[in-house]
Amino acid sequence: MAYDDAPEHVQLAVNMIQQMERLDFPDETILEACLLVIQDTLNNMNREERVTWRIRLSGILSAPADKKNQQATL
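User: That's the sequence. What structure does it adopt?
Assistant: Structure tokens below.
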């Protein structure tokens, strides 16, 4: 799939990953920053959306660390 044909969330993720790679922070720092972004975004949602996303995130994070399965889930 070409970048321009990818869904908006995939394009945003690619841009974010490219930016983080350029900044050259340790993986742990990037993950901590991502958690803050997720928390802030969840706090801006209504309760029903927040619960839905927390369940979805829980499932993704508790799944086996297999790249193919994780990408399919996202």
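The radius of gyration is 14 Å.
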